[in-house]
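Response to reviewer comment R2.3. The reviewers asked that we include at least one raw input/output pair. We reproduce the pair for SDR family NAD(P)-dependent oxidoreductase here without editing.
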Amino acid sequence: MQDTNYKPGAMLTGKRALIVGAGSVGSGWGNGRAIVSVLRAEGAAVCGIDQNLSALQETERYVGAFEKIVCDVIDQHELENSVLAAQRHLGQIDILVNCVGGSVPGDILTLAPEAWLRQFELNVGYVFRILKLVLPVMIKRKSGSVINVGSIAGIRCLESNAVAYSAAKAALIQLGRSSAISVARQGVRINTVIPGLMNTPLVTERLMKNKDPSEAVKFIAERDSKVPIGKMGDAWDVAHAVSFLSSDRAKSITGTELVIDGGLTLRC
Ligand SMILES: NC(=O)c1ccc[n+]([C@@H]2O[C@H](COP(=O)([O-])OP(=O)(O)OC[C@H]3O[C@@H](n4cnc5c(N)ncnc54)[C@H](O)[C@@H]3O)[C@@H](O)[C@H]2O)c1
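Raw output as returned:
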C-alpha cells in the first residue's frame, strides 16, 4: 500500500544514496523498497544492492528506474565490486543505508553454530565490512550519513527463539555508536533505526505462509493489539525516519537510535 498522505519535498536534492537491501521478500512495500522510494522522492539519486535481481526489478516497477546491483553482501569480493560499481555510477556516496537483515528461528539450545555465524554476517558482519569500504571515501570529502536498520530484537527479548538475530542486531547498534565516534570529527554521521512490529511483506508473506485467510486476519489483529498505539508500523515509517536521518536536517544527530515501534518497547 502506498503512503497516500506523503507529499515529497526536496530534502535530499543533490544527494547520492546507496541502499543495501533494495528489494523485498515479497510483493508490496518492504523497508528497503520504501526507502528507495522516499529517498528518490526527496531528490536523491539512488543505487540499490540486493542478492535477488527480480526483487530489485520489482522495486523498479514500483518506484521507476534506478541503478540495480546484484550482490550477496556476505561475499566480500561481490561486496567490494558492488561498492565500486555504485561509486562509479553515483560519482560519490553521500548516504549509505544498510537494510539487509533477517532472522532464522533457534534459541541457545537449538541453533546450530553455523547458523549463528551466518546470522552475524547477514545482520552485522557485512555492515562492518561495507563501512570499511565507504567511510574512507566519506571522510575524504568530510561528509556522509550512514543509517543502519536494526530491530527491537536487539534491545528487548520479546521472544527467545531468535537468539542470533537478537544478538547480532544488538551488536549492530554498538557498531553504529562506536563507529560514529571514530568519524564524528570528519563530518560523517552514523545512526540506527530500530523498527518494532511492522506490517511488511515479511509478515504478510513469510510469517503467515501456510495460514488460511481467516487465521491471517487474526494474526495481524493480534500483532496490532500488542502495540500501544494499536497498530503495527509499516515500511513508510522506517523510510521517513531514514530519509530524515540521512538529510542535513539531522546534522547534529549521530551515534544514536530512532525506535519506530509505536511505544512497544515501553511495555517490555
Ligand atoms: N519487516 C519487519 O517486520 C522488520 C522488523 C524489524 C526490523 N526489520 C529489519 O528491516 C530490514 C529489512 O527488513 P524487511 O522485512 O523490510 O526486508 P525483506 O526481508 O522484505 O527484504 C530483505 C531484502 O534483503 C535481501 N537480502 C537478503 N539477504 C541478502 C544478502 N545476503 N545479500 C544481499 N541482499 C540480501 C533480500 O533479497 C530482500 O530483498 C532488516 O534488516 C530487518 O531485520 C524488519
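Residues 49 and 69 are 5 Å apart (CA to CA). The chain has one domain: 16-198+234-267. Further pairs are available on request from the corresponding author.
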